[in-house]
From TrEMBL:
It catalyses: 3',3'-c-di-GMP + H2O = 5'-phosphoguanylyl(3'->5')guanosine + H(+). This is Histidine kinase. Pfam families: EAL, GAF_2, GGDEF, PAS_4. It comes from Rhizobium tubonense. One of its GO terms (biological process) is cellular response to nitric oxide.
Length: 752
């Protein structure tokens, strides 16, 4: 029979209190402990026992941190706790890291340590309380790291660095999970390595380049299905049939992959988490996957956009060839290499001879197709170490590197290029033969920097053009002189406009029935201060090429209108002044406005102005030409087609043109006496123009024979030396006076 010992009430109450206190201390999730002056555990709750890998609190009592942690950590705790004990200064809310002995994982603790006194107020140890703040710390880390990744994206850090950091971030948030990002390659058919900092490199290398398809592990399948693919057990999932052994070799048992989608829903890559355990992802892992795929999508899309911008900045969009900026870069690199290895670098400037004709007559689409085909042929002719670039229009530059120090190898390549480009090209079911002129400048002899080499190759190309086209020319000292002359001429035109060195001559146009002058063509002349009188053939092509024709053309138009108004104001019978318009002027956006403004400023009636457009200019873009011409025609300005017969007019287009006159080109008129073909063409043009209700004028008429033919074929009008060469404004005034009915004062001028 057991003896019941009855405790006094006070003792019972004390024991109960102790029991409750113990229960309270153990049930608190925080770590509570008391240590003596030697920092030895005197009291510890169950949380302390657990984190240190003990089953009961008794096992902790009597131990120090040196029994529980590595020396460095234990020394750190000891030093802090001794300071608290000796200084009696509490440490409040200190953050510290400990390793959870049960799991081996690091934990963040928020710890307070306070000196503990006995009933005599003497310090006998310390009380400690620590709270596990690992989850909060991870959230902070996630937020901070996300901000860093976003900053890296904004600062255009390399994509692989960004993705690597992103995967490491996710791995730092999770236990036992390895991340991987794969990227869709340019073909859209394969996944290539993006980032996998913790996966075994051998595994990453093997899956680099896997296909996107219905049964290609978790990633290939996720990219194919455009949805997450969760494989909880690689060993037993059919999607992994081809990769099962590989995964097992590296201890990978589960893989959850999610496609990375652009904001337009296009698959950019995949993000996968691997685990060594057979399991599905937790909620936290799923939500971290969402964060990762969103961030990765932004980084990848930005990189794609940057690559596109950079590509566009360095390439010609039509042909895909590098452009001028990349050419300078490549040429500089090649020149640096040359200094080291000592072979030559040659710059070949290529210009297509008859491209303008095809572009003008068949339109831009045909022109574009031709340029693409020629680019392809050039690429086929050069080695992979050489480079082909398009500067714009029909101008290309080829960089030939690693050449022996003689011109034979270059000549051989140029012959090859010439032959390849010269093969027929079929556009719109029509075969064209295109030829090219090429100029070569070689480093180090022909220039020490990229710009000089290109300019000298260009100058040599012009020499090849002058020599009859369809050939090539090496840069020489003589070409150098000519190139400088060209530059000087260009500078001269610029200065000549500013210094009023240009003037106009006027060539009468005569009605063949009445023999009367009804119009004059304004023809520009340049009185150069040193070189004397220069005819347009020597400066108009260069002015057209460089765009200076716009300023010069504006001046010609204004001067011609002013002069015609002056003749009228002087009482002479009103005539039309015809002004030549070049393509560069016609394409200038504000040109129509400037014509109208000139008429307003000079006071000339629009009906007394006719603009001469060449046939090829109009046929370049018939719709646009018709629109511009109609705008000006609506106020009374007339239009003539110059050099008719040399271009490539479509008859239906001709019908739609608001044109009042056709000018038969001089080249047909010149041989009217003896060339049956030219006679036939001239007769046909006269008949065609008249059937289209246009008047027809023959230009370049010099002989009686030509005139007789034109009369016999009922040509309406003529212009040429037979009647008069181009003359000064005074010369025209006299002619107009001469043909006017006599006035009482004998001048032929009417009273105003
Ligand atoms: N865009 C601009 N082009 C202009 C301007 N002024 C002239 N030009 C163009 O320059 C080319 C050469 O012109 P030019 O040396 O003035 O020659 C013209 C006439 O002098 C010449 N012509 C006239 N009659 C005869 C002749 O009987 N025989 C003969 N051998 N030549 C003759 O023809 C030229 C006029 O040609 P066109 O304009 O086609 O009527 C020339 O293409 C001019 O157009 C300008 O201000 N702007």
């Amino acid at each position: 029979m057991s003896t019941i010992i009855k405790l006094p009430n006070a003792e019972l109450a004390w024991r109960n209190e102790r029991r409750f206190l113990r229960a309270m201390v153990d049930q608190v999730p925080d770590y509570l402990f008391v240590k003596d002056l030697d920092c030895r555990f005197v009291i510890a709750n169950e949380a302390v026992a657990r984190i240190n890998g003990f089953a009961s609190t008794d096992e902790v009592i009597g131990k120090t941190d040196f029994d529980l942690h590595d020396v460095a950590t234990a020394e750190k705790f000891f030093e802090i706790e001794q300071r608290v004990i000796q200084s009696e200064q509490s440490i409040i809310d200190m953050e510290e890291v400990v390793v959870d002995a049960a799991t081996g994982r690091e934990k963040w603790l928020l710890t307070t340590k306070v000196a503990m006194r006995d009933h005599k107020n003497a310090v006998v140890g310390l009380v400690g309380v620590s709270r596990d703040i690992t989850a909060r710390k991870k959230e902070d880390l996630l937020r901070d790291e996300q901000a860093i990744v976003v900053e890296m994206i904004a600062l255009n850090s390399p994509l692989d660095t960004i993705l690597d950091r992103l995967v490491r971030l996710i791995e730092s948030q999770l236990e036992g999970v390895l991340g991987s990002i794969l990227l869709v390659d340019k073909t859209g058919k394969y996944l290539t390595h993006g980032a996998a900092p913790s996966l075994p490199p051998a595994y990453s290398q093997t899956i680099d380049g896997i296909a996107i398809g219905p049964n290609v592990g978790s990633c290939g399948t996720a990219a194919f299905r455009r949805e997450s693919v969760i494989v909880a057990d690689i060993a037993n999932d059919p999607l992994w049939t081809d990769f099962r052994e590989l995964a097992a070799l590296h201890g990978l048992r589960s893989c959850w992959s999610t496609p990375i989608l652009s904001h337009q829903g296009q698959v950019l890559g995949t993000f996968a988490m691997y685990s060594a355990a057979v399991r599905a992802p937790t909620d936290i892992e799923t939500s971290l996957t969402q964060i990762t795929t969103r961030t990765a999508a932004i980084a990848i899309e930005r990189k794609v956009a940057q690559d596109q911008i950079s590509y566009m900045a360095h390439h010609d969009m039509l042909t895909g060839l590098p452009n001028r900026s990349l050419l300078i870069d490549r040429l500089t690199q090649a020149m640096l290499q040359t200094e080291r290895h000592n072979p030559w670098v040659s710059v070949v400037f290529v210009d297509l001879d008859n491209f303008k004709f095809i572009n003008d007559s068949l339109g831009h689409t045909a022109g574009d197709a031709l340029l693409k085909e020629v680019s392809k042929r050039m690429l086929d002719c050069v080695r992979s170490t050489d480079a082909v670039m398009r500067l714009g229009g029909d101008e290309f530059v080829i960089l030939l590197t690693d050449l022996p120090e003689n011109t034979d190898a270059i000549s051989a390549t140029l012959h090859k290029l010439r032959t390849a480009i010269g093969e027929p090209i079929t556009i719109k079911e029509q075969a064209f033969h295109i030829t090219c002129s090429m100029g070569v400048a070689t480093f180090p002899h022909d220039g020490a920097d990229p710009e000089t080499l290109i300019a000298n190759a260009d100058a040599a190309m012009y020499k090849a053009k002058d020599a009859g086209r369809d050939g090539f020319q090496f840069f020489t000292a003589e070409i150098n002189i000519r190139a400088h002359e060209r530059l000087a001429l260009l500078d001269g035109i610029r200065k000549g406009i500013a210094r009023s060195e240009f003037h106009l001559l006027y060539q009468p146009q005569v009605d063949l029935k009445s023999g009367r002058i009804f119009a004059v063509e304004a023809l520009v002349r340049w009185k150069h201060p040193v070189l004397g009188l220069i005819t347009p053939i020597h400066f108009i092509p260069l002015a057209e090429e460089t765009g200076l024709i716009v300023a010069l053309g504006d001046w010609v138009l204004k001067e011609a209108c002013r002069q015609n108004k002056e003749w009228q104001d002087a009482g002479l019978a009103p005539i039309t002044v015809c002004v030549n318009v070049s393509a560069r002027q016609f394409q200038d956006l504000n040109w129509t406005g400037r014509v109208l403004q000139t008429l307003e400023e000079t006071g000339l009636s629009a009906r007394c102005l006719e603009l001469e457009l060449t046939e090829s200019l109009v046929m370049r873009d018939v719709d646009q030409a018709v629109a511009i011409m109609k705008d000006l025609q609506s106020v009374g300005v007339g239009f003539a087609i110059d050099d008719f017969g040399t271009g490539y007019s479509s008859l239906s287009a001709l019908k739609s043109l608001p044109v009042s006159r056709l000018k038969i080109d001089q080249s047909f008129v010149r041989n009217l006496g003896d060339d049956e073909n030219d006679r036939t063409i001239a007769a046909a043009v006269i008949s065609l123009g008249q059937k289209l209700n246009m008047r027809v004028i023959a230009e370049g008429v010099e002989t009686d024979e030509q005139l007789a033919f034109l009369r016999d074929n009922r040509c309406d009008e003529m212009q040429g030396y037979h009647f008069s060469r181009p003359v000064s404004s005074e010369g025209i005034e006299k002619m107009l006076q001469a043909q006017a009915p006599k006035t009482p004062d004998g001048t032929g001028k009417r009273r105003k």
